[in-house]
Amino acid sequence: MDVANLASQLNAGIILPEGIVVITLLVVLVGDLIAGRASTRWTPYATMGGLSLAIVALVYQWDTATPLSFLGSFIGDDLSIVFRGIIALSAIATVPMSIRYVEQSGTSLAEFLVIMMTATLGGMFLSGANDLVTIFVALETLSISSYLLTGYMKRDPRSNEAALKYLLIGAASSAIFLYGMSLLYGLSGGKMQLLEIAESFVAADSDAPIGIIVALVFVIAGIAFKIAAVPFHQWTPDVYEGSPTPVVAFLSVGSKAAGFALAIRLLVAVFPVVSEQWHFVFTALAILSMVLGNVVALAQTSMKRLLAYSSIAQAGFLMIGLVIGTEAGYSSMIFYLLVYLFMNLGGFTCVILFSLRTGTDQISEYSGLYQKDPLLTLGLSICLLSLGGIPPLAGFFGKLYIFWAGWQAGAYGLVLVGLVTSVISIYYYIRVVKMMVVKEPQEMSDVVANYPEVRWDLPGLRPLQVSLVLAVVATSLAGILSNPLFTLANNSVSHTPLLRASIEQQQSPAAAPSVAALTSIDKAIAQR
Known about the structure:
Helix content: over 70%
Number of domains: 1
Number of strands: 2
Number of helices: 22
Structural class: mainly alpha
Shape: globular
Domain NADH:quinone oxidoreductase/Mrp antiporter transmembrane: 129-425
Order of helices and strands: HHHEEHHHHHHHHHHHHHHHHHHH
Radius of gyration: 23 Å
Enzyme class: translocase
Family: Belongs to the complex I subunit 2 family.
Transmembrane segments: 12-35, 42-61, 81-102, 109-126, 132-152, 164-188, 208-228, 248-274, 280-299, 306-324, 330-354, 375-397, 409-430
Protein name: NAD(P)H-quinone oxidoreductase subunit 2
């Protein structure tokens, strides 16, 4: 094989965004080794600059003619570009809220940023992984970095406990997922790429062989752990409560987006033979997640645990789009992830600010906060109301789009459960808002009564203020001015051959998936 032919098959330019992140990571790492603590002045901005350049590179790769790279093990189609962009954006938003928090704990900021960029790399590669080895390596890169971030506050016993729980449950989940992938490898006759595995299953001309069903169960268990779906959610409340808050903010969006990207690509590509079975399982997971997440959140006394159960419930809403499998369903899921990025990270920014100033995250301690910190009260109120789906905020339009897509597809039960649980969620979100705003001065909590003077000139607080303002503005306007996000979500689905073929199959269920149909997807991807 000559060099030119090898270079064309590698098509390494597709991973240019990830290459930029790697270079940024090395610059921060080496800069910290050389400059020591003085590097704190520039490493956060270098990190945000590098991640922003990666997003610019993703924009230029939109609708690329040749999305396959590295002999088909990675695919840079529009679906992967959107998910990689969401993960990189969540990392960028996490950096400003980390500066003051990490420095105040006495640990190294540059090391934190390096580990976070490693997790970002894992999530970005996972979003475009197209064979079993790439999927597992990317998943473990994301997972191991997440364990390290969770236990980053080494002097905090709660952080150590959270990291240990996350590691043990995550290791068991990875083992289960790996066993499922080994079954796929064996049952397909040694195939590695996803569409080749699917072709071998369809060529076997069997309705639902038991081996594929067993592999599907193990794969779904691994995916459900990553997106924190009930009953694989046990790690979420404890990890959210014990981890450093910036880490929780990143995991709640970046890790969840990577999990859904994996779910779409793996389930749609590999399991067309058993699509009814995995749709049924994810319907049950969606209902359980929406009900348990929202009901248990009612009893929480800690803001971080409340947001943990809220995250579980949001995963249930997102799964509606995956279950219905229509163009509107996939688009609504991507759109909701885009707006969830702003409102959830904005909420965590407010929680970080409050904990930095008071040292607590108990909901009862927020009582009367409006009297002392109007900006923080306004920001947290808008983000929580958006998570609850109050119009005209971004969360309302996200849920409206998902529920409309579900209703159009005939998933009436899922939509009704979603509507009822959304009403339940509004109660616990508004309870926090009411506590901050409505309380009389004499009912102010002791923590708020002793609230320190609001100063933004302290080291690391100015970036946090900018991050809060941007998140609040985006949450407020992303709903009203949502057309560009709608267009982006719709185009990412309509320009992806894999999803187009799946949608056509969904529209004509009488026609069983064929080898020819799957081969046509390969050709469409290769020719683009």
